[in-house]
Amino acid sequence: MAKTKYSGVYVDDTGQYYYETELGKDRLTGKRLRKKSRTNRQGKKFTSALQAYKELVRVKNEYLSTQGYANYHMTYGQFMDNVYIPAYKTDVEESTFYVRKRTLERMRDRFSAIQLRKLSIEDVQRYRTWLLSEDGAGYSQAYASLVFGVFRKSLDMAVEMEYLEYNISKKVKPIPKGKAIVPYWTKTEFEKVISTICLDDLYEHLCFVMLWVYFMTGIRVSEGTALWWEDIDFENKRLRVHHILFMRNKMDWERKNYTKTADGKRIISLDDDTIRVLKDWKERQSELNIQDFVFSYDGMPMIKSTLSRIIGRYAKLANVHRIQAKGLRHSHASYLINEFNVSVLILSKRMGHSSPEITLKHYSHLWSGIDELIAEEMAGNIHIQTAPKSAIQFNGNQAIKKMSSARIPAKV
């Protein structure tokens, strides 16, 4: 090792230049912060002492401009475990954190050993590609967009907490959400599905009731699992949606006194067929002394994933395509639009949306072809009668004049 004329810059026995300096003390650990490098921030080796010195000056200025940061060498994993994940947990509902927790942990594990300040554009771009690639995570575009968005937000917080000067991920374009079309069942497909269910069997009877109520009301999955019999008004034929169910497991659950959105609290009118289906099921439940949950065969609520398994089982038996649990909500919207030409305002209120605009955003594609009857009625409605002779003097393009005169038959 030999010194150069630049303070803090050295050259080793192989002729490679590098810098070494002490930045101060870590405010959390009290340890001295030392920095040594043979490359610049792009990872290129120094070819001169001047280059090494300029990078040393930049590093010192960066450190001083942020007043030393709480932890200059903090890794992404440490940041996620000690800062972001705990903060996220306090900012969202317990049910939301329960769903997102694994996603946050996978994100943390990917960059765990990398120092926050050493995250590069290449790291971010490779992560973006991995999320969308079939050889990588293979996520849908909508889910990849959500995950990548959370990653960018985590680095936003690192900037706010003064662990970083800027968010490196903002130099990589975000993943667009895309337009996700949720598969659903038509009326005919739904009829095929329920035709495979035997009501003599207790559990199959419950499966029938669940599929029927979700298809005929459009309630969200967690709204349905939270339904109590007190929410059913048989006299006025109404269903009250005021709760959602948060389940950690079969024995650990909580019935929340709110819905996904403020407008989600609503009253849904029920048809006579649904009233009869519910009455029959309530009578069968009473024989088993089940009092509270509508969807239950043992007094306990149904796990959210149960509905997906029910759909899969009977879709296969009926030889129709499988849909997600939330596809029953879309099926209800399609049913009302295609069978009854329901207005967007009525559908919006029934689905618990805050405005018709939200309804159109999610279900506008279901109205395609709904104007065919109107088009048929339009035919012949306007009497077509044109003038036998032009009443205007046209002085425009001569080519048009020639074309017009060419269409006039010669007098015999």
From TrEMBL:
GO molecular function terms noted in the UniProt entry: DNA binding
Oxidoreductase is among the record's keywords: no
Signal peptide location: none
Domain Tyr recombinase: 180-378
InterPro entries: DNA_brk_join_enz (IPR011010), Integrase-like_cat_sf (IPR013762), Integrase_catalytic (IPR002104), Integrase_recombinase_N (IPR010998), Tyrosine_recombinase_XerCD (IPR050090)
One Gene Ontology term from the biological process aspect of the record: DNA recombination
Pfam families assigned: Phage_integrase
Domain of life, per lineage: Bacteria
Keywords per UniProt: DNA recombination, DNA-binding
Gene3D superfamilies: 1.10.150.130, Intergrase catalytic core
CDD domains: INT_ICEBs1_C_like
PANTHER family: PHAGE INTEGRASE-RELATED (PTHR30349), PROPHAGE INTEGRASE INTD-RELATED (PTHR30349:SF64)
Family the entry assigns: Belongs to the 'phage' integrase family.
UniProt name for this protein: Integrase
Record organism: Sporolactobacillus inulinus CASD
